[in-house]
Amino acid sequence: MEEEARSFLGSFVEEFPAALEDGSPLPVSPLSRRVTLEELHGESLELGLRLLAARGAPAGLSAILCQAALSQLLQNDLSPFHCAQEAEHSQEEEQQVVLLQSDAVQRLFLNKLIDVTLARHRDFPKGRPSPSPSRFLHCSVHAIKNTRRKMEDKHLALAEFNQLFGIQSGVDCAYYAVFDGHGGVDAATYAAAHLHVALSGQETLQSDTATAFKSAFKHTDDMFRGKAKRERLRSGTTGVAVLIQGQQLSVAWLGDSQAILVREGQAITLMEPHKPDREDEKQRIEELGGCVTFMGCWRVNGTYAVSRAIGDFDQKPYVSGDADCSTTQLLGDEDYVLLACDGFFDAVKPSEVPQLVLDALHQSVEPEGGRDAPLEQSEDAVGLRVAQRLVSHAKAAGSSDNITVMLVFLRPLQQLRAQNSSTGAAGDAPQQ
């Protein structure tokens, strides 16, 4: 780990020996042209993590550097970056929202990031041990556009949740999420940049994670409403997010993206996706004055095929922004958590997942010596191949949608591969 950090810091200071000059192009593009002060948090962290990941920074070190740079940025007077007041404003707006020029303010953020990274390089390794890797073994993700015209899925894997937000609870915390956009990618991009930031700021995060998650989803939806109004955006996104705190796993969701837990080769049901034809969802929509009709698939008011989402403001409150959340205690015998969009789950049943993963683990090494050959490839490489094979299976099973599959492995792949394949298709087990 130290050697990896040393190598990254050395190459980084060669590329960025000093601050970026005014007017020079940014080495990485911001997500937006203009941001509110609240949006600045998520967009800066996203920008910094993207910049550092592209240069091979260890994930734990990236989180610490970005957190330090953002803290320094927020101590600055940001009024020089305010956008000029626009002439036209909605009459229903009670107060003017202050917007910041992204390029200019993010140049300042990146210069703060360069400063803290150069300082880290100067001090390395005196008195500052490199952050230890997360206890979570690794996360493997594969995503494809498939036959759709555009890729509207987004995802985020953040095993360094505590480091990124300076949380010192003493409990390891990791966050993973998949967002399935529709009508454009804007809502999914927004949720991927801001939901975890909103979650980190919830006072009940440690004591009542379900309430914290629900509030974070609602807050992110409210924030996106402001952006959608300013920029005339019409997109929406479903989403599923997992937070692992020590031995507690919480999953929160809006819409039909899903997460399942696999324990000793059996799929554990964690949630029930929100679909328009679900009886309680249909009743909720009809009591609000809406309707659910079949037009090739079940749709809310003849438009959206989802009943809950971030965004879709032209169909609120029928398309609800209220998330659900469930919590499960980890017993130590869990294999992995799988998160995926409906492009996967519309073609693959949750009960099929354990056997598919087990088969993929075996197939990933067979060319080098058969089913009983040692697992010589790196676990990251094998995990990626498993994710790829799951996506390929969903596509072969008839999915034409965008497909994203994320696997968070909770035990070494060598152990999973050693499991008797007969236990891999045991079907769904109830939540425990």
Global Rg: 22 Å
% residues in beta strands: 15-25%
Count of discrete alpha- or pi-helical segments spanning 4 or more residues: 12
The CATH first-level class of the largest domain comes to Alpha Beta
**Number of separate structural domains:** 2
Q: CATH superfamily membership of the largest domain, which one?
A: PPM-type phosphatase domain
Describe the protein's architecture and organization.
The chain is of the alpha+beta class. It has 2 domains: 2-86 and 93-123, no CATH class; 138-429, PPM-type phosphatase domain (Phosphatase 2c, domain 1), CATH 3.60.40.10. Helices cover 37% and strands 20% of the residues. It is built from 12 helices and 16 strands. It has a 6-stranded mixed sheet. Strand 6 and strand 7 (248-254) form a beta hairpin. Helix 2 runs antiparallel to helix 3 (59-73), helix 2 crosses helix 6 (186-200) and helix 3 crosses helix 4 (102-123). The longest helix has 23 residues, at 209-231. It is globular. It starts with a helix and ends with a strand. One of its GO terms (molecular function) is metal ion binding. It is found in: Cytoplasm; Nucleus. Heterotrimer. Interacts with PAX1 and ARHGEF6 (or ARHGEF7). It catalyses: O-phospho-L-seryl-[protein] + H2O = L-seryl-[protein] + phosphate; O-phospho-L-threonyl-[protein] + H2O = L-threonyl-[protein] + phosphate.
